[in-house]
Hints:
2 domains; 4-stranded antiparallel β-sheet; two-stranded antiparallel ribbon
Amino acid sequence: MMFVRPYAIVSVVLIIAIAVLSYSYIRSSDGSIFSPSSDDMHAADKAAAEERPVDINVAATANAQPALKSYIIQYKILDTPDSVVNFAMNAIKELGGSITHEYNTVMRGFTITIPSGIASKGILAAFKEKAASKDFPFTIEEDKPVHI
């Protein structure tokens, strides 16, 4: 039996809504955005557009999922084995998070997104407990812009 997470369904609905709303904008080969004029639209499309009003609340309705927060998990040892990193990434996925980037060159680690608020603290605490390693310690920092 397949288990579907509720936020996955909301994500699919949001992607479809964005695709539908951005239908009239086409990127040309030179990178500029082309928005067809009313002369370029088919008569049936014009009539349909005039008959139904655009619902601006689509984004608000589709955005029912909790806000997401991004964190960077960085291992202090650059030569941390793949098995340790993969175990940690699987632990985040099991706790409901997702991996957005993986770092292997200058630093060893990955970026995650998890629901913000109280849930994020619980997920991070559970992750620290599950993935803790004396041989390969890691740090967790909020992913945000750095100013020098």
